[in-house]
């Protein structure tokens, strides 16, 4: 059985809130989008794990950063889901100067619904390296 529309919409909102909160400097609220031992991986050997480290990571983001996502694809069943999302990250610039695209890639997300709220268990950012991206994983049984 696929996820109900309400859950799909809630996960879409979670993805948008992730971008708005980290770009606005709302580190604590951003970290709340993850389960307490949630992880963010983006090419570092160990990534960032747990609420305290997630807050510290978000607090260090350049305030000129803008995360832009598209092509959100969500599969799931019950209280578990996976999502695949295209990502572009820009640095804004003063008037008259060009904005800079600093990275593109794909997020691979594992999500869980706890107490009626969807949150990230893990979010892995896979940067584009000039190669075809591997096919996304889906939830078993779908």
Which class of secondary structure composition applies to the elements?
alpha+beta
* Helix and strand sequence: HHEEHEEEE
Q: Which regions are unreliable across 5 or more consecutive residues at pLDDT < 50?
A: none
Please report the distance between the alpha carbons of the first and last residues.
Answer: 7 Å
**Percentage of residues in strands:** 35-45%
The amount of helix comes to 10-25%
Largest sheet: 6 strands, mixed
Number of alpha- plus pi-helical segments: 3
What is the overall shape?
Answer: globular
Backbone CA Rg:
15 Å
Average predicted local confidence, pLDDT = 90
Going across the biggest sheet, name each strand in turn.
2-1-6-5-4-3
Number of strands: 6
Condensed summary:
By secondary structure, the chain is α+β, with helices and mostly antiparallel strands.
Mind explaining what this structure looks like?
The protein is an alpha+beta fold. Helix content is 24%, strand content 43%. The chain has helices spanning 5-24, 27-31, 51-59, and strands at residues 34-41, 48-49, 65-77, 80-91, 100-114, 117-127. It has a 6-stranded mixed sheet with strand order 2-1-6-5-4-3. The termini are close together.
Label this structure with key terms.
single chain, 142 residues, alpha+beta, six-stranded mixed beta sheet, 24% helix, 43% strand
List the helices and strands and how they pair.
Layout: H1 5-24, H2 27-31, E1 34-41, E2 48-49, H3 51-59, E3 65-77, E4 80-91, E5 100-114, E6 117-127
Parallel strand pairs: 1-6
Antiparallel strand pairs: 1-2, 3-4, 4-5, 5-6
């Amino acid at each position: 059985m696929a996820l109900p529309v309400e859950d799909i919409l809630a996960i879409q909102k979670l993805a948008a809130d992730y971008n708005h909160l980290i770009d606005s400097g709302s580190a604590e609220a951003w970290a709340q989008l993850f389960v307490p031992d949630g992880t963010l991986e983006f090419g570092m050997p160990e990534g960032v794990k747990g609420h305290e480290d997630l807050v510290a990571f978000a607090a260090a983001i350049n305030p000129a950063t803008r995360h832009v996502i598209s092509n959100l694809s969500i599969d799931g069943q019950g209280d578990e889901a996976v999502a695949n999302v295209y990502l572009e990250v820009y640095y804004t610039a003063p008037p008259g100067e060009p904005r800079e695209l600093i990275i593109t890639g794909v997020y691979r997300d594992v999500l869980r619904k706890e107490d009626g709220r969807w949150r990230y268990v893990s979010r892995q950012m896979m940067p584009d390296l000039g190669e075809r991206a591997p096919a996304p994983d889906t939830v078993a049984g779908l």
